[in-house]
Write a structure and sequence with these properties.
By secondary structure, the chain is an alpha+beta fold. The protein has 21 helices and 14 strands. The strands form three sheets. A six-stranded antiparallel sheet has the order 7-6-5-10-9-8, with helices on both faces. Strands 1, 2, 3 and 4 form a four-stranded antiparallel sheet that branches. Strand 2 and strand 3 form a beta hairpin.
């Protein structure tokens, strides 16, 4: 058996016909009943662990010449309708560059066209290829095998001139077929990795989700316990003859971890649990499970990251608005806040120009998300610590949850509200406060924002007419950013203002509504784009 051993651990079992050392790794081949047995896994690991083409092609050549015991080896890959030499150990670089073989021409071209293995013991007597011989073959005996992936030929592996001078036999062909199979897999993997290097993490995840050949996604233990997939249908994957079949394990609709035995089962088989790809919401759940990876990855630009963060938040708020008491939904919101905070710390001022979430209900979705992200930038600007910022941001994200009780016709009314309609709107603050308080999952610092975000500094706001320091710093900040995000966005009854116009309106036409020190710091952030405020605010 061919084994892969390090240079200090050598097996003494069996009759070792040869021992090959490549890159500090020994490959031992054994002869049993006059047949060479090989450990395909060892060859596969060696080849599929290399992802740079130059090193991979060299390794394929080294393994081929050493294991098959030949002097010469060449690797050719198909480009369009032509075979090109990618690596050989006997041709000059000039010849390699110039050599082109049409698929179907010559022996290599015929092997590429037909996808069959060829062993020639003597080219002079083999009638199959009497007219296909090529001067490159320096001996009478040679072999040529195709490199095949998913039924498609991608290239050819050629060898000639056996080291002992004898003709090649079926045992040699068997070894070369094994090498060609794993070489094809390794080349395919290196090609895919090469393609993904030009893609951002977001684009890579998009490709994973929208891959039409795979209709299921693997899920993590975290996403099942308290996460986006905690109530999803779950499937087991069975692989047979290279085909994947999925069998329903859990019907969904209820939490899986009620029974300890079920949890134990999942812990042992977590990589075998899958959820179906079934639309936009499932896609956003998939992206939600990868938010931390997206935020920390350098390949995606700020806009890509903010788009994902915003869209995932829409999905979370939608679920939370439908079932606010669901513990999972609150936990998902908290995890989203952590990712959003990480993005703000790394992107900072970049968010200011990317702040409008389009296409969603202005109150329940886009507005709350815009307020939260803008407030995180501002909190970073004025120096709030991480723990304070987390409570602050969660409260902002959920502050308009009371709007779920308001008729959408009132929310989206394109003209001025009458007094009755306005009174209905004003009730959302107290309703949201009560809803969040009753969950038992939200801190007072967070759910108080639902109550305070319409209180004005001069006491003219609602629901309680609080003023000045009766309103917490969080409440004073949220009031400013709530108004700013509202008037810089399209609303049912008004078009969006520019940032400069919004600042002018808030300074000149809304005097008394805001804490002037907080407002000045906020305008300073908008104008300067710097990450450090001139004045550090102190909570009062």
């Amino acid at each position: 058996m061919l084994t892969m051993l390090d240079n200090t651990t050598r097996s003494g079992k069996g009759k070792i016909s040869d021992s090959i050392e490549i890159n500090n790794t020994y490959f031992d081949s054994r002869v049993v009943d006059n047949k060479v047995e090989v450990n395909e896994e060892a060859i596969g690991i060696a080849l599929t662990s290399v992802f740079k083409f130059e090193k991979l092609f060299k390794l394929i050549n080294k393994l081929t010449t050493s294991l098959v015991k030949v002097k010469y080896s060449s690797l050719m890959l198909i480009e369009g309708d032509t075979l090109r030499i990618k690596y050989s150990n006997h041709l000059t670089e000039d010849i390699e560059q110039e050599c082109r073989v049409k698929v179907g021409d010559g022996i290599s071209g015929w092997v590429a066209l037909k996808g069959v293995n060829v062993i020639v013991k003597n080219i002079e007597t083999d009638t199959r290829f009497a007219k296909r011989n090529n001067a490159r073959y320096s001996s009478k005996s040679f072999m040529s095998v195709p490199l095949i992936i998913s039924g498609k030929v991608i290239g050819v592996l050629n060898v000639n001139e056996k080291s002992d001078g004898r003709a090649f036999n079926e045992r040699d062909l068997g070894l070369l077929r094994i090498l060609s199979r794993y070489s094809a897999i390794a080349i395919r993997n290196a090609t895919l990795i090469g393609k993904t290097k030009g893609l951002s993490i977001v684009q890579q995840l998009d490709n994973d989700y929208y891959n039409k050949t795979e209709k299921f996604l693997p899920v993590t233990l975290k996403s099942l316990k308290i996460g986006p997939f905690n109530k999803s249908e779950l499937y087991l994957k069975n692989s047979l003859n290279g085909e994947n079949n999925y069998v329903l394990y859990w019907k969904g609709g209820d939490r899986l971890f009620i029974n300890e035995k079920r949890e134990e089962f999942i812990r042992k088989n977590i990589n075998k649990l899958f959820v179906p790809k079934n639309g936009r919401k499932q896609y956003l759940r998939f992206m939600e499970t990868n938010m931390e990876k997206i935020v920390q990855n350098d390949s995606a630009c700020s806009k890509e990251k903010f788009d994902v963060i915003q869209n995932v938040a829409v999905n979370i708020i939608s679920d939370l608005t439908a079932i606010p008491e669901e513990v999972c939904n609150i936990e998902r919101a908290k995890q989203w806040i952590e990712s959003a905070m990480g993005l703000v710390r790394s992107s900072g001022k970049d968010y200011i120009g990317l702040s409008n979430t389009k296409g969603y209900d202005i109150y329940l979705y886009g507005h709350s998300i815009n307020v939260t992200l803008m407030s995180l930038v501002f909190a970073h600007h004025i120096g709030l610590n991480i723990e304070e910022t987390g409570e602050f941001a969660l409260g902002l994200l959920l502050q308009d949850i009371g709007m779920r009780s308001v008729d959408s016709l009132i929310i989206n009314k394109p003209s001025k509200l009458n007094s009755d309609e306005y009174n209905i709107i004003k009730k959302h603050s107290e309703i949201g406060f009560q809803m969040l308080q009753e969950t038992g999952q939200v801190s007072p610092e967070s759910y108080m924002l639902a109550l305070l975000h319409h209180e004005n500094f001069n006491g003219s706001g609602y629901p309680h007419g609080l003023k000045e320091n009766e309103i917490s710093l969080y409440g004073r900040i949220s009031r400013i950013i709530d108004v700013y995000c509202a008037i810089t966005s399209d609303r049912p009854y008004a078009k969006a203002c520019t940032s400069d116009d919004a600042c002018m309106i808030m300074k000149a036409k809304m005097k008394g509504f805001f804490d002037t020190e907080v407002l000045d710091n906020f305008i300073d952030l908008l104008k300067s784009g710097k990450g450090v405020a001139k004045t550090r605010l102190v909570s009062s």
